[in-house]
From TrEMBL, chains A, B, C:
Protein origin, superkingdom: Bacteria
Coiled-coil residue windows: none
PANTHER family, per the entry: AMIDOHYDROLASE 2 FAMILY PROTEIN, NODULIN 6
Domain Amidohydrolase-related residues, every copy: 68-365
Gene Ontology molecular-function annotations: hydrolase activity
Full protein name: Amidohydrolase-related domain-containing protein
């Protein structure tokens, strides 16, 4: 950590997008299946510890569990089990030194807890829109629009989140659907017998309704698991919707974006209400995060870029999400200072904006 | 500047694609709205000085106006106003040390002047095709093809330029449209009452007619303002049109290209008449230009890559366009020399080709 | 070569995808037309020696022919001719130090020889599926499915290869076509009089039939010559087919991938049967291969990445394919070691997996 610029080492971080922490002990298969976006370990492809992220777990998390750096994966997992999930989660999530978490509780299996449980820091809710739709649609298609609005009116969440990328892709018609269209879509959905919200009309309706209420909307973009099709998650596909929603003046925050992070930066530059991050990618690429973050920061205004871990299930991912981000941000700023592209006060301002000030402004925190 | 290789520091530069310089004094909002591709400053996103480009203005342009490097933005703008636009424009455009400008006069608000006014260097015209169409279509649909041809026959321009990317996207039918199709399209356009050329048949017609007359055609690709949709500006969408126009043997020059600059480089490698640049991106990413330029130079033959600033309105952008390009090119060549990938004579040849020889050959200058 | 880590300098390499070596002497035009993916030298664009690859030929291959590094192109070509193709091929292919070649014999003009002829190493066959279809379709549409199956049943090849990217693009319907559909497609093909397999139904049929027999299928993706359209060669377009074929548990290997190598890495992470390489790009970008390889290795598990040259015709490309790969891999590993991202044993394991172990597992070699 000694390579960190002081203004990054001491930087307050608001994690504006993450998930819950799994509180149960894991065997090797269980651990690996949560490590990356792969659903399970491939017998054809060796172990998922053979990856940038797997190396980072052994390199950085091992020492926090009193192992030498880069102890073998089996030793790491044995030590993890002997300490127990509660102790490991407390140690690793605390070590992330994150001041506040915005947590998407949309996918929340048994045994999950919010990360703030382990740190005593503050936790705020992000409402997953598709989950909301799935919760209220059983009441019937005709009342579906009203039920969605009621839920949004009374939510305590600071933001909403759309996973349209996973369900219908991002090539959304920008028009606000009429209630009649929404009811018809809910009708089709109920008739299909599926519990899963996977209808473009409903996805658009949810985004518009959230923005109407001044709720910033986070949108999954790019990198994720095998349920998505990457070229349908190009943020550029959202352009018409971004044009249509710009007059509302409510933030739309593009999450992850890898490998479309340059395209996302362009959108954040030209649309006043668009913000971006490279969460998930940062720890996924681990020791290579400096290049990815530098690319992401090419054209995006520094007032439009946010920090997130997108950590899910494994406490390691909170810690590594924060660590790889801090190292990459420090490298970015150090490189600029070294060639006198900006002064120390500029570096400090950029760090502050990205670490927490942008999140505070976007989500109107405190 | 002392890090520049001598062969780059003394390099003659032909800016094969830029715009006019604004001759009026600007307040902060006016300056920022011309600084990046954002239409205006976002109240949600701090200042556009919080960007790589904003830092570069303070770092590099400030000292030319007798300020210390990285003086605050407000000081910079106050100094700029106290000197007056004429003096600032002369100072900054001259400092770019560009030997010749090819200027697109298609967007030329009141108060614009050609950059050569400030330097005494030579200026040649690039004819914006959509603007030509907009100028001649009021004469009537039936005479539209003939009027376009007459104008192209008598143009003093050294190249034509298409902004089809902005108007209809780059996924153009490659076929040369018949006059009957063009007249029908002009008819529809006139009936629409719009003054704006936004018809794919007409875009194709304009490109074909310019190439028929041996006029190299510059095509806007990739990065630009919020009027375009980035995935519709992927240069690969032009592939069929490039195949169809290859037999004419007239250059097609893909402009900007970011973030599709690798795809553009591929097209320049495999199509004999295709050339590329990374104008606009170079100063937009500012101190990070070395990586973008290096990527752009991965597979493109060095005989197919050109320098441009794509500067518009602000004199800062001519200076920074040339400065960031020179630094990035020098970094590229120095890195190659350092690992003995090529010899000094090779570096000098690459610099010469990219700086001006390719432009001279493509546009038959002198 | 002295910058290579010992574990890379001594690394066994299995080239899992390459072509034949041309045994005839070449003039400058003949040499240049085989050097890059350009079909011929452009009079508009100087020489193809003005490229990263052209410089690498002069830098690295010259000294193996007893010329000083970076001797002029004409000297290099004169020396090449005076030694004769047989001697040059033996020298350069041997210098690649490749232990085993998997050779696609689908495009095999007169004068071609397998690379192992020059080295005494082992050579295995990859069956080009479109070539197989072209060979058997003249027997008639009704027997086409059976003839394809017979050929696949009796092939001695260790893998099949699809060039659907070139013929129909990668946006393939994932469904296994029925025999009736295949016969109808073969009928249409025969009626067209074309000798060329360019039908999506047949492409899909060939891939499914190969996988059914446990034959790993290599798929051309991304970078290639002017016959392809790059955006139709995005590996993400294969997602539905990858989902559909996953249950078979037979490897699908995405070749080249540039500039979509990050997308390919994502697919290799989330689909258990998907593997990737950056063959062709490695020597095409030459001294810049380190960045491309590092990007390709961001999210791909190290158990899913393979080495290939994709060398075709020129012996230089085998040597440079191996050399640029070794240097780039060594740079990747050295950078990680330098910042203690992993230990030497990890670096050695990653090198071994990528150099030959993954190929051995995927193709069940030995």
């Amino acid at each position: 950590m000694d390579r960190l610029l002081p203004c990054v080492g001491a930087l307050r971080l608001v994690d504006h997008h993450c998930h819950g922490v799994l509180g149960v002990d894991l065997d090797r298969a269980g651990f690996e299946s949560n490590l990356t976006e792969a659903g399970s370990v491939s017998p054809l492809g060796t172990s998922l510890f053979d990856s940038s992220l797997g190396l980072a777990v052994r390199r950085w998390c091992g020492p926090l569990l009193d192992l030498p750096p880069l102890a073998p994966a089996d030793e790491y997992l044995a030590r993890r089990r002997s300490l127990g999930a509660a102790e490991v989660n407390r140690t690793l999530v605390s070590a992330a030194e994150i001041s506040m978490f915005l947590v998407d509780r949309g996918l929340w299996p048994e045994g999950f807890a919010g990360p703030a449980v382990f740190t005593g820091s503050r936790e705020l809710a992000v409402l997953r829109l598709e989950r909301l739709a799935e919760d209220v649609v059983p009441a019937g298609a005709s009342v579906f629009p009203a039920r969605v609005r009621e839920a949004l009116n009374s939510t305590g969440a600071v933001a909403a989140k759309s996973i349209a990328a996973y369900r219908v892709g991002l090539d959304l018609d920008p028009a606000r659907p009429s209630d009649a269209e929404v009811v018809a879509a809910a009708d089709r959905w109920l008739a299909s017998g599926s519990g899963r919200c996977a209808d473009a009309v409903i996805s658009r309706f949810l985004v518009w309704e959230a923005l109407d209420r001044g709720l910033p909307v986070q949108v999954h973009v790019g990198y994720g698991d095998a349920d998505l099709t990457l070229h349908r998650c190009d943020p550029s596909l959202l352009t018409d919707l971004l044009r249509a929603t710009e007059p509302l003046g409510v933030p739309v925050v593009l999450l992850h974006n890898y490998p479309f992070h340059r395209t996302a930066g362009y959108l954040a530059q030209v649309f006043p209400h668009v913000f971006v991050d490279v969460g998930l990618a940062t720890h996924a690429v681990a020791h290579q995060a400096s290049r990815v973050l530098a690319e992401a920061l090419e054209v995006v205004p520094f007032g439009k870029f946010l920090f997130s871990t997108d950590a899910y299930a494994l406490a390691e991912l909170y810690y590594l999400g924060a660590l790889t981000f801090r190292r990459a941000l420090s490298d970015f700023l150090s490189a600029g200072l070294r060639e006198h592209a900006f002064a120390l006060a500029d570096a400090e301002r950029i760090a502050r904006l990205i670490g927490w000030e942008n999140a505070q402004r976007v989500y109107r925190l405190e």
